């Protein structure tokens, strides 16, 4: 009588250790909902351009008065987009005199990038 | 006669060398349009969950037949979301027998993450 021994190659199942939450295991509904809201705030050409202008400005801060001309949109439209970016955590807002100033809040951007990094 | 020499502190204008396109300089309209389309494909809870299930599967590949139950959506809805992810470059599709298989195309995800990494 022959006894068959099943040999499992455990190294094959160890796989690569991976850091990105999206790749490590299936994300849950709550996490997917939260990430989708954040990505939606970014997923607009005007908002990406505004965020990029602020992020590349000196001190990563810009006056709303300097953001209107470069994107070629009306002041209310620019203000709406800046509000969406601020509510999503990508910018912080402070008022000095007549104007509002927007500063990059880099943690939000880093958070999204880390989530997607494989 | 006194000659005034203007001394420019060049170190002040050198700034930090930075890698993220979004932070290095204001992105242009064409680049913003392209990135927004890619981010829109990601910015949906069902698509994030589907992408995450595929990405965390063995070989980063999954049969469409194994993707329907976990997200609790109809087969046509799941197929639509998979099509959006495939067209955006996040997944590749191959047909084997009756079923379609989806595999993670990691470059697209890395591309978005690199763009946003500060």
From TrEMBL, chains A, B:
Database matches in InterPro entries: ArsR-like_HTH, ArsR_HTH, HTH_ArsR_DNA-bd_dom, HTH_MetalResp_TranReg, WH-like_DNA-bd_sf, WH_DNA-bd_sf
Record carries keyword Chloroplast: no
Gene3D superfamilies attached to this UniProt entry: Winged helix-like DNA-binding domain superfamily/Winged helix DNA-binding domain
Single Gene Ontology MF annotation: DNA-binding transcription factor activity
Keywords in alphabetical order: DNA-binding, Transcription, Transcription regulation
Keyword DNA-binding: yes
Domain HTH arsR-type residue range list: 27-118
NCBIfam families (alphabetical): HTH_metalloreg (NF033788)
PANTHER family in the cross-refs: ARSENICAL RESISTANCE OPERON REPRESSOR, TRANSCRIPTIONAL REGULATOR, ARSR FAMILY
Protein's name according to its UniProt entry: ArsR family transcriptional regulator
Organism for this UniProt entry: Microbacterium telephonicum
């Amino acid at each position: 009588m022959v006894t068959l021994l099943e040999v499992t190659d455990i190294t094959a199942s160890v796989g690569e250790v991976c850091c990105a939450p999206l790749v490590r295991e299936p994300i849950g509904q709550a996490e997917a909902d939260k990430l989708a809201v954040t990505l939606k705030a970014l997923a607009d050409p005007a908002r990406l351009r505004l965020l990029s202008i602020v992020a590349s400005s000196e001190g990563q801060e810009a006056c709303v008065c300097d953001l209107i001309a470069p994107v070629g949109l009306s002041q209310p439209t620019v203000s709406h987009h800046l509000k969406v970016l601020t509510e999503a955590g990508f910018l912080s807002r402070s008022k000095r005199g007549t104007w509002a100033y927007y500063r990059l809040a880099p943690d939000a951007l880093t958070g999204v990038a880390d989530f997607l990094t494989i």
